[in-house]
User: Fold these one by one.
Assistant:
Number 1:
Amino acid sequence: MESAQDWHSAKALLEWYIELGAVDAIGDEPVDRYALEPTPPKPVKVSPDSPAPATPTKQPAAPQADYVALAKQAAAAAGDLEALRNAIAAFEGCELKRGARNTVIADGNPGARVMIIGEAPGRDEDIAGKPFVGRAGQLLDKMFAAIGLGRDAPLSKDAIYITNVMPWRPPNNRDPSADEIAMMAPFLERHVQLVAPDLLVLMGNTPCQTVLGRKGILRMRGNWDQGWGKPVMPMTHPAYLLRNPVAKREAWADLLSIRAKLRDLE
Ligand code: URA
């Protein structure tokens, strides 16, 4: 098909659609649905013998499933990490699942002393099926390597384990809603129980809201707290550090504090 657009603007437009979450091309020709004639309602034939139309009666609303309760049940029933993965993948309460390519659960060593909790997969993670693999993830790996920890480390003492509050990518990387967080929090809490790390690192506001019940990461970062029975260190998200490189100095202080805490807890 001939296009009025040049190659570069067509490519930029396509990337924008992908960024918005479009995954399929459904027709060769675009359809401007706003320009279509509205379809008139079908005429109803009325004969003199027809019974009078029934007065519409109000239908009782279909009962809504209590997905938070279902999530709590499913999470509590998961006896190990494999069962938890299956329970998350089978959970149908969260609309984000329908727009995601992959359910992104975790990466790293499940025996790690440090469990890192991010927000939600972005585009790269949605494609790869693993958390923190894009630019922010590469920075996260460098940050923890600087204190001798890595996701591929075979020994628990040198390892990190990484997950997110949400296992599915929100469209256009928007923040997860309070309802979405409430539905997935029971799975995350069970995840923390099963991994049983020595401490948690919360990357940004969404995991702070989920684990500590409050946000304000720029005030909270660097201060040890207690959540879900673990020492908790809130840190600014690596994506924030990419946009605000001067904040890396504070992040370095937080990493040193994590290293010191691991020594204290030995
Ligand atoms: N940001 C997150 O919070 N998690 C990811 O997995 C990737 C980017």
Number 2:
Amino acid sequence: MLRFGVSLEKELLEKFDRLIREKNYSNRSEAIRDLIRQELVKKEWLEGKEVAGAITVIYNHHRRQLVDKLTDIQHDFQKIIISTQHIHLDHDNCLEIIAVKGMPEEAKKLADTLRSIKGVKHGTLSMSSTGMDIE
Ligand code: NI
């Protein structure tokens, strides 16, 4: 592990310390390491490196055509989908968590396609990393 010094304005450092307290970091170093990792992961998504992530969708399963559509689309993107988990939230609503690994454009395209289907109430894409290039 290497050490380096950082110069900061007093006000900025106070804001940073408040932020890391709110986020429960044990110290500044761990908070800074995490910020760096976040930027590295952002770069992976921008530069088209292989990435990993999760897509979530919330929908009403009583709309039968919707269920078929969601299944068809997932078959079309089978190359990047590594796992799908289906959770019955209540009598009407389902949550699906789709784990993906592959090219960022494909992952975004899948998330956009699923989100745009009529009847999908909410959809998110969590952009993460394969972990290969971050420490
Ligand atoms: Ni269900």
Number 3:
Amino acid sequence: MTHEKATYLLDLSVGELEDLVQELGQKSFRARQIWRWLYVHLAGQFEDMTNLSVALRQKLAQHARCSALQALQEEVSADGQTRKVLLGLADGERIETVLMLYDERATVCVSTQVGCAIGCPFCATGQGGFRRDLSTGEIVEQVLYFARWLRDHGPAGLDRVGNVVFMGMGEPLANYEATWKAIETMHDPQGLNLGARRFTVSTAGLVPGILRLAEEDLPVNLAISLHAATDELRDQLVPVNRRYPLEELLRAVRAYLARTNRRVTFEYALIAGINTAITEAHRLADRLRGLLCHVNLIPLNPVPDSRWQPPPDHVVREWQLFLQRAHIPVSVRLERGTEIAAACGQLRGHSKAPKGKQSD
Ligand code: SAH
Ligand code: SF4
């Protein structure tokens, strides 16, 4: 089998696909036909590409593959609105992808790395350490997986992917090239055709990546995982803060805003007794006043074996009210799908113990 060495078509741009097709002795317009099969018809195998000759399909199958992910396990929340899949990669690594079906949009939450090097102590992915970056194709195929599911099983009005959020496992700006190329692939009007605003890149605060994102032509949404309003606390919760402290991070956000004029989201996970004192809310409001932004409060999703918990509801409400009064737009992320371990990295964590085998 040439399978392992085969070119993974989802890693390629249209131009690269044209080069490949020419190398196989074909006219370059075939590349656009293949592209349509992949991203419009959502074909997962060459046999489906019926307007290509049988000979070309066979040749492609010898040299290339259009799928590298395998669904290993799926979980559905009790209300059916959240689906989470554990996907196996060609080298045996595993990642998670989540589909959320509320707010009249189908949102796919993708992973960008196997594990994460940043090591936030409240995050299941961070606790597992870093394994490797995902390739462009491995990011795109997560979206194709749920695009196919929506086409075949999506509820009325929700038969296609609406939004893609980079909030699964890993730090997207630490895998910038593959992440951006995946966005360009999914944006292509002759393919999945997702507009720039359908994408949200979430970062722990990698300043060079934010500045680079500001220079891109496609104005995607930016979310910053803040979780603290002082360096002292943020150094503990989001360790990369030691490299890019708050002032520097906010300077990069201002540069991003100056360039894009797109409202930035600040994520604030509320962790009982750690970052929930109302004095922290005051500090947060002071930091954010005047910025074109929005705060998303996320009651912590408790990670197994961790002593950290979400605060009681009244604390969440108190924060919400305080920020509203300070004229900072605020929302609270509903804890949907907690029972299927919706916090990133947790399904992978579960399935590893004991000894990487599911008992069924
Ligand atoms: N690495 C990027 C994107 C992936 S994490 C980032 O940190 O932004 C996506 C979001 O989930 C981040 O805001 C992260 O802080 C949050 N998160 C991680 N673990 C969580 C948990 N246990 N409960 C609530 N939010 C969590
Ligand atoms: Fe990495 Fe984001 Fe988890 Fe922090 S919260 S460890 S940056 S995935």
